[in-house]
């Protein structure tokens, strides 16, 4: 594989993927990103002199721009990370989610199809469109339900999940209708370096370091499966190279945790690393008003990717969490750059009404 068009490569998972791709020489990378609030080009600063990395600022929904990028850079594959990704924001303002996740993916698919149809038959066969999606499309599990499989029916419950589900269906349709060589992955919650601190794990780490309350929605018993971001990136690269076109692959960490447990584990790591005079960070835990329609449990059966492609996560939750906390402790310039006025406004908007639980 020579050139990869990565969309959304200035966000959390996309940037980790781009850095891994260049470090491990997986491919030359063209990164197309709109640079929304969730992006940070500082994450990619080490690539600024890399001749095999190009950044283009733009929207996946701008078909003329996407077509020009495709014509100019002639990628051998596209990996689509670009999305609005935060469930709480999708509840407060769903419009952006429909615009990017659904309509944007449609425009990207359409531009990709037109580009792909003009390739030589040899390059057409080798071309791949990998769509990065979420386990949230499958809806909510009860504590005794079996984990999500690739054939679990879609039942999205939030505007975010619904917009991603719609994009997954479009990708499927472009394979079945036009033969575009697509692949879809549905992954569980990621954590690791460079995640925007609106999500549970970085929010908890940074609030705890500042001595601020650690907000837990509802009773903290909702369960998520957590995967270290580098393991996700390895899985994506494997699916890109060896996945069967037209198919979907579930990716997960086989690591189900209640939210309360996640927050308590972070507190314990911080107690070890930074506590002065025996301060217990867990004393900052604050139960707050629940998220509307809060899915009870996500769990992934990753038997297919394990059997067919031989992938399994390398990082344990304890080792991944330690690396993550250490990364936030040693990257205060990155942290400061993302906690701007807009971030403070979001914290106010999302948490002010939740205080009285
Ligand atoms: P993120 O919010 O951190 O980053 C999204 C990136 O996409 C940002 O850089 C943003 O600027 C860019 N973007 C947004 N709209 C765009 C547009 N219209 N055109 C071009 N770029 C645009 O998201 P993330 O957590 O890195 O997630 C990446 C992908 O992985 C998403 O598709 C998400 O649904 C999926 N996913 C995320 C998780 C998770 O736990 N974070 C889990 C499974 C799947
Ligand atoms: P989040 O990181 O937003 O990911 P997702 O909603 O995609 O799973 O949230 C993870 C879990 O943590 C989810 O069950 C909601 C919960 N949560 C809190 O309890 N408090 C918070 O402040 C946040 C942001 C999330």
Written account of the structure:
By secondary structure, the chain is an alpha/beta fold. The protein has a domain at 3-193 and 227-255 and 294-316: 3-Layer(aba) Sandwich (Rossmann fold). It is built from 13 helices and twelve strands. The chain has helices at residues 12-23, 63-73, 87-92, 95-117, 121-126, 159-178, 200-209, 229-242, 259-274, 303-309, 317-330, 332-338, 341-351, and strands at 3-7, 28-33, 53-57, 77-80, 128-134, 182-187, 189-191, 214-217, 223-228, 248-251, 256-258, 285-288. The strands form three sheets. The protein has a seven-stranded parallel beta sheet, with helices on both faces. The protein has a three-stranded mixed beta sheet with strand order 7-9-11. A two-stranded parallel ribbon has the order 8-12. Strand 1 (3-7), helix 1 and strand 2 form a beta-alpha-beta unit. Helix 1 (12-23) packs across helix 8 (229-242), helix 2 packs across helix 4 (95-117) and helix 9 crosses helix 11. The longest helix is centred in the first third of the chain and has 23 residues, at 95-117. The chain is globular. The N and C termini lie far apart (52 Å). The relative contact order is 0.13. Residues 87, 189, 199-200, 203, 215-217, 222, 224, 259, 291 line the site of thymidine-5'-diphosphate.
- The CATH class of the domain at 3-193 and 227-255 and 294-316 is Alpha Beta
Q: Name the CATH homologous superfamily of the domain at 3-193 and 227-255 and 294-316.
A: NAD(P)-binding Rossmann-like Domain
Number of helical stretches of at least 4 residues:
13
- Low-confidence spans: pLDDT under 50, at least 5 residues? none
Give me the secondary-structure category.
alpha/beta
Strand content: 15-25%
In CATH terms, what is the architecture of the domain at 3-193 and 227-255 and 294-316?
3-Layer(aba) Sandwich
Write the H/E string, N to C: EHEEHEHHHEHEEHEEHEEHEHHHH
How many beta-strand segments? 12
Distance between the termini: 52 Å
Characterize the largest beta sheet: strand count, sense, and whether it forms a barrel: 7 strands, parallel
Q: Mind telling me the C-alpha Rg? A: 20 Å
Bound molecules: nicotinamide-adenine-dinucleotide, thymidine-5'-diphosphate
Globally, the shape reads globular
The mean pLDDT is 97
Helix proportion range: 40-55%
Strand order of the largest sheet: 3-2-1-4-5-6-10
Q: Looking at CATH, which topology of the domain at 3-193 and 227-255 and 294-316 would you report?
A: Rossmann fold
């Amino acid at each position: 594989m020579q050139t990869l068009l990565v969309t959304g490569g200035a966000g959390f998972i996309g940037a980790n993927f781009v850095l891994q791709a260049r470090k491990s020489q997986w491919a030359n990378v063209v990164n197309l990103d709109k640079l929304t609030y969730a992006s940070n080009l500082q994450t990619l600063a080490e690539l600024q002199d890399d001749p095999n990395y190009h950044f283009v600022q733009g929207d996946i929904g701008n078909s003329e721009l996407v077509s020009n990028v495709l014509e100019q850079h002639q990628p051998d594959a596209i990996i689509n990370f670009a999305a609005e990704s935060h469930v709480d924001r999708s509840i407060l303002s769903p419009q952006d989610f429909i615009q990017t996740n659904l309509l944007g993916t449609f425009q990207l698919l359409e531009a990709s199809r037109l580009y792909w149809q003009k390739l030589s038959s040899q390059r057409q066969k080798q071309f791949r469109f990998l769509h990065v999606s979420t386990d949230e499309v499958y809806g909510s599990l009860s504590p005794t339900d079996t984990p999500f499989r690739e054939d679990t029916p879609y039942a999205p419950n939030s505007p975010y999940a619904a917009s991603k589900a719609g994009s997954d269906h479009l990708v499927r349709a472009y394979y079945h209708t036009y033969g575009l060589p697509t692949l879809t992955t549905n992954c569980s919650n990621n954590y690791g370096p460079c995640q925007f601190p609106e999500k549970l794990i970085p929010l908890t780490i940074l609030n705890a370091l500042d001595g601020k309350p650690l907000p837990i929605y509802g009773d903290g018993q909702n369960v998520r499966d957590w995967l270290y971001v580098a393991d996700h990136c390895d899985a994506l690269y494997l699916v890109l190279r060896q996945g069967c076109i037209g198919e979907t692959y579930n990716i997960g960490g086989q690591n189900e945790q209640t939210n309360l447990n996640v927050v308590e584990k972070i507190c314990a790591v911080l107690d070890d690393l930074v506590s002065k005079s025996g301060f217990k960070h867990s004393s900052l835990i604050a139960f707050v008003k629940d998220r509307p329609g809060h899915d009870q449990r996500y769990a992934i059966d990753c038997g297919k990717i394990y059997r067919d492609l031989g992938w399994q996560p390398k990082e344990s939750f304890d080792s991944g969490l330690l690396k993550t906390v250490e990364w936030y402790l040693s990257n205060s310039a990155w942290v400061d750059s993302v906690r701007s006025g807009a971030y403070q406004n979001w914290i106010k908007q999302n948490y002010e009404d939740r205080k009285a639980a």
